[in-house]
Design goal:
The complex is a heterodimer of chains A (338) and B (243). Chain A has 338 residues and is α/β, with parallel strands linked by helices. Chain A has eleven helices and ten strands. In chain A, α4 (117-123) crosses α11 (309-320), α5 (167-177) runs antiparallel to α8 (238-264) and α6 packs across α8. The radius of gyration of chain A is 20 Å and the shape is globular. Chain B has helices at 35-49, 69-86, 95-100, 144-151, 162-166, 168-175, 191-203, 222-230, and strands spanning 2-7, 12-19, 22-30, 57-63, 90-93, 109-115, 120-129, 132-143, 157-160, 179-181. Classes of the chains: A alpha/beta (338), B alpha/beta (243). The structure holds zinc ion (ZN). Residues 117, 121, 141, 143, 273, 306 of chain A line the site of zinc ion. Chain B: Residues 31-227 form the Gcp-like domain. Chain B: It holds the Pfam family TsaD.
């Protein structure tokens, strides 16, 4: 960090099914981190229902902001900026955070900042120890699977992304096919520990040197495998299926993440997003990074899943660079990162 | 005593500033344009024109639904967050009641109406009242034909709202000469009317919105209704207003 920064940023995040607010000082110091999860509400639907999520965000949003300020022991007047997730995400859900942030900014005179959700995920790591540049980040969650290159603070270059399902989405969909409860990721992880990954499932590498991902073919392969074995009257061990599916996802994620670091000549890899909770991914990535001489950073789980502290942290560097938004800022479902 | 009133529950974007029931300024647009983009700049601009700062506001009124789910939420969230940020109360008024105010001088009953798709409407029956309008039959989401059957024989009724014009033939078919329609200007809800209604409620001692308050959508989210139906609970498709 060349410039020193003094800032106190309120973050707001409502891109999916967590209503969250947090206060971060100087871009890294966590003063409060409040998350109201809707997991229990959406469980009965087997997935996040956008309309239900948006309704819940409206109810909770001001209480959550208030709690974040209270826990941080700061007043509205102390704040340097209010940073909010502008996208990507569910547009109806994003709109609640964006509307709230704009109204807050207008009422208090605190400057407004729009933050890209993926940038936020990468900055989760910065709340634990300083990001070291240049770096590559693998962001994998229920909503996204991306490889991002950062030459320095607040500068992002997308190297690869999923062309269909996100990694976490693939976990959830396969879990549903296997009759596992929602959300499926943790259940597959658990089940896979008791199985052997011997079932033959594809790895989707796409074009040589591509850093993009594709998980829908793998999902179809799992469905076909289950279907065919049922027809032939052969029983497939669920634990083996979970282990084999997970091995396929993990192998591709690890390989492409390492490939990205080589292509960019960097030795810092930051794991981010809810899928970093997966124990097989953590282990495989740690082992591989050690072999390759890459420093791997994995933030604690509560900062990997969606939260507003990461939005406040990323927003702090936009504040440093004077990147403010106007009251006409809109929520953008497929906001590009740049 | 300065009040800000905002309504984004339909295509209309309405912002008004009132002082003890006196209208200081109002902006009404009726365009297919994004409320999320335009609401706060419109509020800021109007207040600037009136030389007012946010700190001079003493309460906020919002049209709290029914209407477009997203539109209702943009207005409600913005109003709620402004009110909380300024430490002032928020009053939510039915978006249908706001529209009904446009029939204030009609010597009969008033039906404000928004399209709710698949031949259903958000509606209620209003009558004139000293402070504005008062609800005679509860607000509901209902098939337009069932609603018209229910209204037979009540005497002259004024139908308000642009969507009412879309159902004009069917309304005339069932109610004949009893059916009346608003002028174009009367079919557009006005934030000034919202502010007046809210101010009247406040004077009557109505409670402001609670901290975890939410709009009144008049119906459950579709996924929720289906889920309840599957549980054998009926789904409450026609859930009545609680306002
Ligand atoms: Zn996320």
């Amino acid at each position: 960090m060349s410039k020193t920064m003094k800032s106190l940023v309120l973050g707001i995040e409502t891109s999916c099914d967590e209503t969250a607010a947090a206060v971060v000082e100087d871009g890294y110091l966590l003063k409060s981190n409040v998350i109201s999860s809707q997991m229990e509400i959406h469980r009965r639907f087997g997935g996040v229902v956008p309309e239900v999520a948006s309704r819940r965000h409206v109810e909770r949003v001001t209480s959550i902001i208030e709690q974040a300020l209270d826990e941080a022991k700061v007043t509205k007047e102390d704040l340097s900026a209010v940073a909010v997730t502008q996208g990507p995400g569910l547009v109806g859900a994003l709109l609640i955070g964006v509307s709230a942030a704009k109204a807050f900014s207008f009422a208090t005179g605190v400057p407004l900042i729009g933050v890209h959700h993926i940038a936020g995920h990468i900055y989760a790591s910065h709340l634990v120890e300083p990001l070291r540049f240049p770096l590559v980040s693998l962001v994998a969650s229920g909503g996204h699977t991306e490889l991002i290159y950062m030459p320095e603070h607040n500068r992002f270059e997308r190297l690869g992304r999923t062309r269909d399902d996100a990694a976490g989405e693939a976990f959830d969909k396969v879990a549903r096919v296997m009759d596992l409860p929602y959300p499926g990721g943790p259940h597959i992880d658990q089940l896979a520990k008791e199985g052997s990954p011997h079932l033959n499932l594809p790895r989707s590498w796409l074009e040589p040197n591509s850093l993009d991902f594709s998980f829908s073919g793998l999902k179809s392969a799992v469905i076909n495998l289950l279907h065919n074995s049922e027809q032939r009257g052969v029983k497939i061990e669920k634990a083996d299926l979970a282990a084999s599916f997970q091995a396929s996802v993990v192998e591709v994620l690890v390989e492409k993440a390492v490939r990205a670091t080589r292509m960019k000549g960097v030795s810092e890899l930051v794991l981010a997003g809810g899928v970093s909770a997966n124990s097989a991914l953590r282990e495989a990535l740690a082992a591989r990074c050690q072999e390759e001489g890459i420093t791997l950073r994995v933030p604690p789980l509560n900062l990997c899943t969606d939260n507003a502290a990461m939005i406040a942290a990323a927003g702090s560097y936009r504040f440093r660079d004077g990147q403010f938004a106007g009251l006409d800022m809109n929520a953008i479902a497929n906001l590009p990162l740049a | 005593m300065k009040w800000l009133a905002v309504d984004t529950s339909t295509l209309v974007l309405g912002v008004a500033i009132l002082d003890e029931g006196r209208l200081l300024g109002e902006v009404t647009t009726h365009l297919h344009k994004n409320h999320s983009v335009r609401l706060m700049p419109t509020v800021a601009r109007l207040m600037e024109d009136l030389d007012l700062t946010p700190q001079e506001l003493e309460a906020i009124a919002v049209a709290g639904g029914p209407g477009s789910y997203t539109g209702v939420r943009i207005g409600y969230t913005s109003a709620k967050t402004m009110a909380w940020s300024l430490g002032i109360p928020l009053y939510s008024v039915s978006s249908l009641a706001v529209l009904a105010m446009n029939g204030f001088h009609f010597p009969g009953e008033i039906i404000p109406l928004f399209d709710a798709r698949r031949d259903r409407v958000y509606t209620g029956l209003y009558g004139m009242d000293k402070g504005g309008v008062s609800l005679q039959l509860p607000e509901r989401v209902i098939n337009i034909d069932y609603w018209l059957e229910e209204l037979k024989g009540r005497g002259p009724i004024l139908f308000l709202g642009e969507d009412a014009i879309r159902f004009k033939e069917r309304i005339l078919h069932v109610l004949g000469d009893d059916a009346h329609f608003g002028l174009p200007v009367e079919n557009i809800p006005r934030a000034s009317a919202l502010g007046m209604l809210a101010y009247t409620r406040f004077q009557e001692g109505a409670a402001p919105e609670p901290e975890d308050g939410a709009p009144n959508y008049l119906q459950l989210a579709e996924a929720e209704a289906k889920w309840l139906q599957k549980q054998g609970n009926g789904g409450e498709e026609n859930g009545a207003s609680t306002h």
